[in-house]
Amino acid sequence: MNRFDFVRDIDDLGFTVLENAFINHYMPKARGDYVKVYLYGLKSSLSKNGAPSNAQIAQALKLTEGDVLGAWKYWDSEGIVRFTQTDDNCLIEYFTIASKLLINDANGTKKTKKTQSAASAKIRQMNKDIEEKISRPLTQIEIEMFLNWIDEYKFTPQTVVLIISDCIDRDKRAVKYWESMALVFHDAGVKTYDQAQLFIQSRESRWSGYREILNYLGQYRLPTKPEKELMDSWLDEYKFDMASILKACDETTGSSKPNLKYVDAILTKRSQPETTAKKASSKNVKMENDHNYDVDMIEEALFGGE
């Protein structure tokens, strides 16, 4: 049986074949660093000199390992590379651009290609929906940020669209703000579109309650963080409804400066003895009624505005 080999003792004298389809359709819209990683990886996939690690690629290209990982994830989302990471090991599989148009590849991985195609289609639709919402094309940094949310926070593409749409509806267009809001949703355990909707509705409902209580006392402002926590205890721990809370507010009318401390004293007396003792032992917060709000900026902007 014959055996064929192509001898290349000096790497610099070798060559790497690059499809024109990559240059025409993928390179123009990709970040320059990602193109460098793609090309370096393509050369490595055809080399017999061993596979370089992400750290070695980063060193060779004067990038960070995070940049290299971001590149693999980006090309994976484009469907021309399959990136699989297990602990410290990575498998990077290159597809020919033409193979994207085929039903089956040489290994018969029809199901895998359909899955990849569906995932890529959802990502493309996500980007399209967001671009329509913000009325401009997405930058490469924004595209990468959304991919990181999907990877790190396990958001669905529809969840990403809902988070950005909600921010835009509130005229919040800063990327840093979007990043902060994504973290708020992640910390709340949100992953799916339905969970995100419920989270937004519940928080808006709670902030509407805060405003109603303060406005009832003639204080047209946002609550401080201690005040917010106090009102949460009335609603969550004591299970008072809004009518009972507003009735307690009515009893402060004799005060020259009614505030939440007076309301809390009234509601505390009406709660069960064991609950009262528990709250009295744990409550030692200072109520502030000036404008030095000690409340998360993101929550103020998202849930506190009129």
Distance between the termini: 80 Å
Structure summary, number of beta strands: 2
Strand order of the largest sheet: 1-2
How many separate structural domains?
3
β-strand amount: under 5%
Query: Globular, elongated, flat, extended or rod-shaped: what is the shape?
Result: elongated
The succession of helices and strands, N to C, reads: HHHHEEHHHHHHHHHH
Would you kindly provide a written description of the structure presented here, covering whatever features stand out?
By secondary structure, the protein is mainly α. It folds into 3 domains: 11-101, Arc Repressor Mutant, subunit A (Orthogonal Bundle); 113-191, Arc Repressor Mutant, subunit A; 209-304, no CATH class. It contains 14 helices and 2 strands, in the order ααααββαααααααααα. The protein has helices at 20-26, 32-45, 54-61, 65-78, 110-134, 140-153, 157-169, 175-187, 193-216, 225-237, 242-250, 260-270, 273-282, 297-304; strands spanning 81-86, 89-94. Helix 3 crosses helix 4 (65-78) and helix 7 crosses helix 8.
List key phrases describing it.
single chain, mainly alpha, Arc Repressor Mutant, subunit A, 3 domains, two-stranded antiparallel ribbon, 4% strand
